[in-house]
Specification:
The complex is a heterodimer of chains A (93) and B (508). Chain A has 2 helices and 7 strands; from the N terminus they run βαβββαβββ. Chain A is α+β, with helices and mostly antiparallel strands and 93 residues long. In chain A, helix 1 crosses helix 2. With 508 residues, chain B is mainly α. Chain B has one domain: Ribonucleotide Reductase, subunit A, CATH 1.10.620.20. In chain B, 59% of the residues lie in helices and 3% in strands. Chain B is built from 21 helices and 4 strands. In chain B, the strands form 2 sheets. A two-stranded antiparallel sheet of chain B has the order 1-2. Chain B has a two-stranded antiparallel ribbon with strand order 3-4. In chain B, a hairpin with a 3-residue loop joins strand 1 and strand 2. The longest helix of chain B has 31 residues. The radius of gyration of chain B is 24 Å and the shape is globular. Classes of the chains: A alpha+beta (93), B mainly alpha (508).
């Protein structure tokens, strides 16, 4: 099973100021993440799983950030969602 | 001790559980009469959980924030005459098809989810459906508000809801919505939240909206992405409801598989319209329909169904055909619109030379071989003044209601795909095995289809001639026809200081 290609989890957000710390946090916390800038949007994809951590976003943003604020810039996603106060995670089983 | 802030999980639990009750003076089955007849067995509604754990108070807060951002952009777009900065006015054809084809479908979805928000027995599911009902209404409203600005400057945007109920190609999305609405609640949510929103809606709202940004339409991009942020929640809900039903009882599997097979194909046929928007109506196209299909269906949908494989669920029936059609779909759909361009509420046009080269590059196996010659032929006919629109009405598929334009892409792409079946002595016609299967599973439902062409011939659409029917559609004479003969084109030329309107080709 280890040779099997892992399915891609992705998160797409708007390309704007509010999303920037989220994109940077994803870059820091997800080794091997592929980030593509398309007109108006940014697509972040990674094999098997992708995580957004509250703490990292807060450090980059310099203020408190509620994980649910992700809704304000979210465009699309793929993967099973696991969300709590600390993180928003997408993964394929 | 100061009250500690509750965590997300706890807040969700408190605001979605224990707010219903076992009824005593009426039977529960009478209070919730619709959630059993489809055969879906639910043993414990409390197992339902919204992965986003969104509560009503948080919902209102975030939605208000989204609206503020959206309306700030709509205002600034209008104040800065954003319409003059589009890539080209021909791009508006996509917006005209969007407001007449998609927006009424959003409104229909609002109806459906409002119904589910009352009729599911589990409170968690009801809360999620109530939010989605409000979302769908918001989508219809924000689309109308955004696009109303274009209605001040361009033709064809004046009566979307009236036209949705009548126009030949708008019966495609309308009949899909009504197919779902007239089903039971579990089938409805499987259709809209899963088959349409999870599996296919990315194709409409992600590459197309990115395309709108690429063509200078920030207003549409913003409502599109704002709507899509709700869609992400809906997709998650769609996946959750499928997993929930599958985990509740093993008998649910074959029922759900049947619905996924059906509604995947139904929704995919609706998206045939989007393929033409993506490849032909967008002046500049960042991504082709085929590329979008490969990313959002083949790859992403593949991952999804692999994940659901543990429940025994399989890829929707005929998905291979949909993938094989990806190299032909937009060309076939745009061709039929061009051939019937005197009966559309938006402008049609042959692709510019530059666009044709782009299509050749994106569709190396099909465009030059099958479709370029057709568009070049029409272009030449228009230059010579010999072009004529189709004078007859097309035969429609009994299920998807699209004219019979699709071909046998796997064997002979120049051979029309034609299927038929007999039911109670009458012969019914279909564009594909997918639509034929759907009919044969529920013939009693689909014999009732309101097929626009049949209705015209039966005298129910204003008269027997094309002008009479168009009048009945409330199509104004300036709404349809070739873009280069249009009021929109002349206005665009004036705005950009070109007083000699070019005759043909947007590359002039």
């Amino acid at each position: 099973m280890t040779t099997k290609k892992k399915n891609t989890a992705f998160l797409i957000v708007q390309d704007n100021e509010d999303a920037r710390p989220i994109i940077e946090a994803v870059e820091q916390d997800n080794p091997g993440v592929n980030i593509q800038y398309e007109p108006g949007m940014v697509r972040m994809e990674r094999a098997a799983s992708l995580i957004v951590k509250r703490e990292t976003v807060e450090v980059l943003k310099g203020c408190e950030w509620d994980v649910q604020e992700l809704h304000l810039v979210l465009i699309s996603l793929a993967g099973n969602v696991d969300e709590d106060d600390e993180k928003f995670e997408l993964s394929w089983g | 001790m100061a009250a500690k802030k509750l965590n997300m999980r706890k807040r969700y639990e408190l605001l979605t559980r224990g707010i219903g009750w076992e009824t005593s003076y009426q039977k529960m089955d009478d209070v919730f009469p619709y959630d059993t007849f489809e055969g879906i067995k639910i043993t414990d509604w409390d197992k339902w959980e919204d992965p986003f754990r969104l509560t009503m108070d948080a919902y209102w807060k975030f939605q208000a924030e989204k609206e503020k951002k959206l309306y700030a952009i709509i205002d600034s777009f209008a104040q800065n005459n954003g319409q003059t900065n589009l890539a080209d006015a021909s791009y508006l054809s996509a917006i005209k098809l969007f407001i007449t084809g998609v927006t009424p479908l959003e409104y229909a979805a609002h109806h459906g989810f409002a119904h589910l928000g009352r009729h599911f027995r589990g409170e968690g599911a009801r809360v999620a459906c109530q939010m989605q009902a409000i979302d769908e209404l918001r989508h219809a409203q924000t689309q109308i508000h955004t696009i109303s600005h274009y209605n001040k400057h361009f033709t064809g945007l004046h009566d979307p809801f009236y036209q949705s109920d009548r126009v030949w190609y708008l019966s495609v999305p309308k009949s899909f919505g009504e197919d779902a609405l007239s089903a039971g609640p579990f089938e409805f949510i499987t259709s809209i939240s899963f088959a349409f929103e999870y599996v296919l809606t990315n194709l409409l709202f992600v590459p197309f909206m990115s395309g709108a940004a690429y063509n200078g339409d920030m207003a549409t991009t913003t409502f599109g992405f704002s709507a899509q942020s709700d869609e992400s929640r809906h997709m998650t809900l769609g996946l959750e409801i499928i997993k929930f039903m599958l985990e509740q009882h093993e008998d649910n599997l074959p029922i759900i598989q049947g619905w996924i097979d059906k509604h995947f194909w139904r929704a995919y046929r609706v998206l045939a319209l989007v393929s033409a928007m993506q490849d032909y109506m967008l002046t500049n196209t960042p991504m082709s329909w085929k590329e979008a299909w490969d990313i959002y269906f083949v790859e992403n949908g593949g991952a999804l169904f692999e994940d659901l494989g543990r429940y025994g669920l399989k890829m929707p029936k005929h998905h291979e055909l949909a993938t094989a059609e990806a190299e032909h779909l937009s060309h076939q759909v745009w061709s039929v619109f061009c051939a019937l361009g005197n009966a559309t509420g938006f402008h049609t046009f042959e692709p510019s030379d530059e666009k044709m080269d782009w299509l050749s590059e994106k569709y190396p196996n099909t465009f030059d071989k099958y479709y370029r010659p057709r568009f070049e032929h029409w272009k030449k006919q228009k230059e010579d003044g010999t072009f004529e629109y189709l004078a007859s009405l097309p035969q429609l598929c009994q299920v998807c209601q699209i004219p019979m334009i699709f071909t046998e892409v796997k064997t002979d792409p120049m051979q029309l795909s034609f299927r038929n079946t007999k039911f109670k002595g009458d012969n019914y016609h279909f564009c594909s095995d997918g639509c034929k299967d759907i009919f044969e599973n529920e013939p009693e439902k689909y014999v009732q289809a309101w097929l626009p062409v049949h209705q015209i011939f039966q005298g129910n659409c204003g008269g027997a001639t094309i002008p009479e029917v168009l009048k009945w559609y409330k199509f104004e004479p300036e709404d349809g026809g070739d873009y280069f003969d249009s009021q929109d084109f002349r206005r665009w030329q004036e705005w950009h200081g070109k007083d000699e309107p070019a005759k043909t080709g947007s590359d002039n």
